[in-house]
Design a protein that fits this description.
single chain, alpha/beta, Rossmann fold, 7-stranded parallel sheet, 6-stranded parallel sheet, 22 strands
Length: 606
Amino acid sequence: MSVQFLVKDTTLYANFIGKLNNFSQTVAVLKKYKSTFSPSSKTWAVNQLHFEELKAELEDFEMIYISEQDEEKIKELQKPKSSITFERIPFTKDDLKVPPFKGKPPFENYQLEDLTRCVNRNRFGLFLEQGCGKSWIFLNTYHILKKYKGVKKALVIASPSGVINVKKEFLKFTDVTENEIAIGGVKNRRPFDDLSKNIIICNYRSYLLIADEYHKDSKSKSKDYRINPVPISKWLDGGEGVLILDESHYIANPKARQTKVIHLASDNFKYRYLATGTPADKEEKYYSQLKILDKSLVHNLSYSNWTDEYFYLGNNFSSYAITGIKPKRIQELRNIVEKNSSRRFSDEILDLPEHLEKNIYVEFTQKQKDIYREFVAERLEFLKDDFGSIHTDKVVKDFPKMISAVDNPLMLFKHYGDLSPSLQKKIESFNFEKDHSKIEALLDIVENHADSKIIIWTSHPSVGFELERILSKYNPLIINGECQVPKGLDLDQYKGSIVETFQNDSSRRILIAGQQVFNNSVTLIAANVQIVIDTNFNYTEHEQAGARIRRIGQQKTVYTYNILIDESLDITRYNNLTDKDFTNKKFLSQEYMDKHLMQKMFMAIA
């Protein structure tokens, strides 16, 4: 008889009541305006931004029913109410335990300016490049809010390597005592039970473990939470808490479970602050971070509806894939980000030492080339479809494993169980020290900087352990995801001890570090030389790792060396990182390529 519109849990739905005049036409109109059907509830979720257009078109041939109560709710949805508040807190430099760092002209007072913007509003993003002192700003924000607004409790979620560092900086920058701080994690999965703890610090993965632990109380087996399982409201005890997400790019994926759990928690906090030097290498990664600050910044839209509003969707592989941002939306999104964050770059505001970056191109050794050629030929033959062509989507998915043929051929055994006997024999005879073409270049750089401390960045732990053996005469330190953590220490404490030793022990001048575990929340200015021998495909980790040695306090010229094997997948990976979105937008842009073209692209041709 009619189409009923109603609002439930901030979502606008359309229900069918009785027999419709024109069912198929009604469904076509709903789809036209981006409504989505749920088979389980038999309802349509409606994009509220297009509600008036949808309703007007349906009224031409269907009866529309909306209760007075739902009419009011729809108006609220169409004009999202912001919870961002502004007020002036008249703090002075005397309120600060540690004075701000002075930038170079005309940014001498940038830290005070950003601190003022944070304390005078309850939601803000500090998108400051690595080394600009984000921690000083967001921790002093808590310090001032505590003094002038009576805010006591704060939850800080940081990167895995940042937890211990945040604790140290709380003690350094604020009047918080050690007894007030709890570290949440594997050893303390219920930190919110202790109401005497005013500060809880954990990493993103640990917060998910904490949420799962409290969820056990509900006796529900499902991990798809609909309400926040963590007793934050009880812990706040009626007070207004502060939520600080350090390295907030960790929640850039709105579909990740750890992101969803943190979103559920955020509603408990009046004060919310984000901090990262790499907020988004793609525009869509702003969604989740803006939503954490305030839902009105994303128009109260779900991620799918928001992307549909802002981006062109659909390609040969997926109708939901983002292919570009709509031109009319670019400036709108920029304005939203600019009004709600501070974006600063270290070279603009800090008087940093000169940075010299150089790409060192090397050629395959003969044994390396033989393995590489035979492996690529076998792999492309394996990926070829029934029609004799190679679908590029298959190659893109296989690419992160194929790169093992460049970084450490011995890892091919880990990823592929179908290698030919001939190739297996060649790989087994591979000697990393003698047959890897990057080793000679690495040793030359180490010897040329005999008076410097050096960080060697790797992505694969197996490469790190090989380098530890090759460089044994230098007694190197090593840290990666597969290192044995000494008894009595957790991983974060072990990282802290590695940093302290490297910074202060003059006999340990080389650190072999995994980018995944050591890319943020550490300062390594004892070193002024870094060598990237291999990396992964994560632009954020790569960029953040590179900023560990060039930051406040560095007095020497900084040298960065990228060692690359020419005419190989190594170059493709480097382009991926320097272009940020190379893989999705440029890499293998044709849908199909014949075998000859693929071989020419992937194989080193003498």
